[in-house]
Amino acid sequence: MTKPTLCAGRLYCDLVFAGAPRLPSAGTEVFAAHLSLHAGGGAFITAATFAALGHEVYQFSRLPAAPFDSIVLSDLDRLKVNARHCVQASPRSDPQLTVAMTTPDDRAFLTRADGPALPNLSAITWTGFRHLHIGELGTLQENPTLIDRARAAGLTISLDCGWQDGFDPDAADLIAMVDVFLPNESELAALAALGISDTCAPLTVVKCGPNGARASSGHTWTHRKSTFVETVDATGAGDAFNAGFLSEWLAKAPLADCLDKGNACGAAAVQSSGGAGCLIPAMAD
Question: 114: which of 8, 98, 142, 172 is 20 to 30 A away, CA to CA?
Answer without folding.
Answer: 172
